[in-house]
Amino acid sequence: MSFQVFGIPVSRGVAIGRAVLVASSRIDVPHFFVDPSAVGSECERLVVARDRVASDIALLQTELPPDAPAELAALLDVHLMLLHDEHLVAAAQNWVVERRYNASWALAAQLEVLARQFDEMEDAYLRERKGDLEQVVERVMQALHSPDESPEARWSQVASRSSDPNKDAAEELILVASDISPADMLGFRRSIFTGFVTDVGGRTSHTAIVARSMDIPAVVAARDASRTIRQDDWVIVDGDAGIAIVDPPQIVLEEYRFRRRQGELERERLARLRHTPAITLDGQSVALLANIEQPQDAAAAIEVGAVGVGLYRTEFLFMNRGGQLPGEDEQYEAYRKVVEAMQGLPVTIRTIDIGADKPLDRMGLNELRHEHSLNPALGLRAIRWSLAEPVMFRQQLRAILRASVHGPVRILLPMIAQASELRAAQEQLARARAQLLDAGRAFGHVQVGAMVEVPAAALSLHLLLPLVDFVSVGTNDLIQYTLAIDRADETVSHLYDPWNPAVLGLLQTIIEAGARAGREVSVCGEMAGDPQMTPLLLAMGLRSFSMHPARIPLVKQVVLRSDARRLQTEVGRVLQQEDPQAFSKKVFEGA
Fold first, then answer.
1. Which domain holds residue 51?
2. CATH number of domain containing 72
3. Inside any domain, residue 29
4. Which terminus of the chain is more solvent-facing, meaning fewer CB atoms within 10 Å of its CB: N or C?
């Protein structure tokens, strides 16, 4: 009988196949007290198990394929960080010494302590890291109970189920699990699975992050999926709606097969626009730039025809390193690789934007516990953090200046709220130049821009524009701060609305102010990559969009079909509406 399982859509598209279930491998934990003479050996078992898991993860890191998403490597780093944190195995040893719990019982007891602390965290991103902790502990448990088992044995069992000789070789498979660890995701990438459904997870969980980076249809938080879906059931994963349809009627199956094929044909057709300049019907040139996070992402930007990098998020160089932050030379090499890979196209490098949903871990679990007591979105983040750490800030600025020798580079300062922050940052930039001169190191000329992410910057932009060469609008944070919505909090995330009239009004104010001052304005948030928003942004006068490389063909198609002058005549009416989205769709239909 057909039924539907509802969850959270985290990666778009349609996948159809037979279900392969990965049952939860939670191990039954034996509970017994050890003899005092065995305390030392039980403590040693914990260390040996931890080291075995660390070795397994390190091996996985060395075997990552060149095209593996950067997020997957970062998540393996997170698991290593948690594994070596003193509040895990060392604390579990205290249970053995003080209570004489056996090793497995001690580890389970410590997990409960840490899990409660994660549950109490206010920040949704940090709460979801509990899933990573549980997976790390599970792997240590497996090492305790099966010390001779291959680290990939569990995955091999899943793979063997997916290679049943009685099945059609062309039949696609859907992975259904309670959760999927980063290690299993590596196996998932190498397999023939074309989609997955998990019981748990959220928009910022590791499964969601990796699914988006791999462009694989996925639904998470489908609460009872692994218990209600049976082995070999037909499953449709609708990554757009967040639904898994189990044993669908033939007519539904054919409809989704048609949708999937249409999607494939559309991607092939859009790929042919790669070398077509983004020019509107009335001759307006539009710059379509790429947002990237790692040096290797530059190749994807070139592949889809981006005319530059509009946002290089450098904070990912700093995260998940267990306190070993990158030095000037390491940063310079990363920035140089991007600049050279873009083959003379401009690269906008944003200085480190740490804080809020991107915490900079230095001490592991201890730092996470302390950080949740603050409001990270309103705290020491982005330019505030950089100005509070001037030595590290100048180090990054020197690395960027050195990289500018290899091609056109622009520096973007995040979360500017007032002119005094701009002046302070430019003072640090001047000192960084002087330090390079003193050291005899070469550097080039860079333009300096400010990110407009808070309403204060948008409303006082006339004071900021004389101090910069360009501005870039971070719509994700601008929406969050304008509407007082934590976009990572699922209890209020439905109120996060890019079409809110107040948000659109601020955006129009920014674009008009930039035009009056002769400064380029770009939008680099999710709004820039949303084809439904493209006609309105063109109507407002925006001519520079920066987005995930995968979104560029979709937006370019809309640009090529748009008459910017005609659109401009309608923008005033759109901004006056209570429901701008519905009205915009009506007046811009076929634009």
1. 36-152
2. 1.10.274.10
3. no
4. N
In the prediction, which pLDDT does 24 show? 55
- 31 domain residue, yes or no: no
Same domain, 441 and 495: yes
Which is higher by pLDDT, 347 or 363? 347
DSSP string, 247-283: S--HHHHHHHHHHHHHHHHHHHHHHTTTTS--B-TTS
370 an active-site residue?
no
Token pair, residue 104, equals 């497995």
User: Which of 237, 267, 297 finishes a domain?
Assistant: 267
Query: Residue 11: inside a domain, yes or no?
Result: yes
User: Has residue 134 got a pLDDT over 50?
Assistant: yes
Count of domains in the chain?
A: 3
Query: Hunting for tokens 């680290």 — which residue is that?
Result: 151
Q: What is the pLDDT of residues 455-470, one digit of tens each?
A: 999 999 999 999 999 9
Instruction: In whole angstroms, give the CA distance from residue 562 to residue 554.
Output: 13
Helical H segments across 120-167, by residue range: 124-127, 129-145, 153-161
Q: Which residue has the higher pLDDT, 115 or 465?
A: 465
402 and 462 share one domain: yes
Quick one: DSSP state of residue 297? G
d(CA 108, CA 244): 33
Annotated catalytic residue: which of 206, 372, 406, 548? Answer: 206
Residues 109 and 171 in one domain: no
Per-residue pLDDT tens over the stretch 513-535: 999 999 999 999 879 988 999 99
Return d(Cα 121, Cα 38) in angstroms, integer: 37
Pick the catalytic residue from 43, 79, 87, 524. 524
pLDDT at residue 372, as a whole number: 46
Query: Strand 243-246 vs strand 234-238: parallel, antiparallel, or unpaired?
Result: antiparallel
Which pLDDT value is given to residue 105? 85
Residue at token pair 């430019």: 426
Confidence of residue 68 (pLDDT cuts 50, 70, 90): low
Domain with residue 303: its CATH number is 3.20.20.60
Average pLDDT over residues 188-212: 71
Paired tokens of 153: 């044995």
186 and 300 co-located in one domain: no
Tell me whether residue 572 is in a domain: yes
Whether 372 and 393 map to the same domain: the answer is: yes
How confident is the model over 143-166, as a mean pLDDT? 53
**Domain boundary, last residue among 109, 125, 152:** 152
What is the residue type of 417?
A
Q: What is the pLDDT of residues 240-275, one digit of tens each?
A: 889 999 999 999 999 999 999 988 888 889 889 999
Q: Are residues 173 and 140 in the same domain?
A: no
Q: Which helix (H) or strand (E) holds 17?
A: strand 14-22
Higher pLDDT, 27 or 551: 551
- 97 and 18 belong to one structural domain: no
Based on the domain organization, do 172 and 130 belong to the same domain? no
Known catalytic residue at 275: no
Coil, helix or strand at residue 23: coil
**Cα–Cα distance between 531 and 8 in angstroms, integer?**
21
Strand order in the sheet with 3-6: 3-6, 243-246, 234-238, 14-22, 173-177, 193-198, 218-220, 8-11
CA separation (Å) from 428 to 243, 312, 419, 422, 432?
50, 20, 14, 10, 6
